[in-house]
Amino acid sequence: MSRTLVVNFKNYPEIMGEGSVRLALAMKRAAETANIEAIAAPPTPMIALVASKAKVQVYSQSVSSDAGDKTTGAVLPEAVKAAGASGTILNHSESRRNISDLRKLVPRLASMGMGVCLCSQDASEAASLSRLGPKYLAVEPPELIGSGVAVSTAKPELVERTVALVREAGYGGKILCGAGIVSGEDVARAVELGVDGVLVASSVVKAADWESKIRELADSLK
């Protein structure tokens, strides 16, 4: 099973418009070289552009739990799928969702053939959310997001505990970790702790050279 690199583009100015395409193309090249799975998560308005031009796996950064055609302004799962996305991130620390929403959304997305990268803030939340059966389950302590201090270095016990708890709960999908991961060394340490991949954002988007940074992270997932 190949390991996974998820890059959350967020809404940084560097990736607006064609920037999203350039970053996604760099991800595609690095993934092919390192033989890993890469998932790009651009802002919603850029999903169709990235999916059509970069030919990389695309996830939305979130979706609405609304349903039906009279839903002005809502970002429906059906709409992001039609735009070319194959899944979505849910419950990121910057876009938290209540459990009732998640219990409705995860099976709804699965019924549409859409994957979910479900985020948690700690090991106990990860174990609880694993019962929803997402394709990916990520643990990210919010205090380390964007800090440049990697969770795999600062809180290795959190990563190990998360892996142990969710596997004990019977979860069979991929476990990811994120928050503060900036280097290949951070990624390699995360893999040693038992995860199947990483979820990153600013360390890639804000890098001076996207190609070399993504390749550094991807090579460490081999």
Write structural notes for this entry.
There is one protein chain. The protein is an alpha/beta fold and 222 residues long. The chain has a single domain (4-219), classed as TIM Barrel (Alpha-Beta Barrel), CATH 3.20.20.70. The chain contains ten helices and eight strands. Strands 1-2-3-4-5-6-7-8 form an eight-stranded parallel β-barrel, surrounded by six helices. It is globular. The model has no long low-confidence stretch (mean pLDDT 96).
State the secondary-structure class.
alpha/beta
Order of strands across the biggest sheet? Answer: 1-2-3-4-5-6-7-8
Give the topology string: H per helix, E per strand: EHEHEHEHEHEHHEHEHH
Name of the CATH architecture: Alpha-Beta Barrel
Biggest sheet statistics: 8 strands, parallel, barrel
Helicity, as a percent range: 40-55%
Strand content: 15-25%
Please identify the oligomeric state: single chain
Poorly predicted parts: none
Distance between the termini: 11 Å
Number of helices: 10
**Which descriptor suits the 3D outline?**
globular
Q: Count of DSSP E strands?
A: 8
Mean model confidence by pLDDT: 96
The count of domains is 1
CATH class: Alpha Beta
CATH topology: TIM Barrel
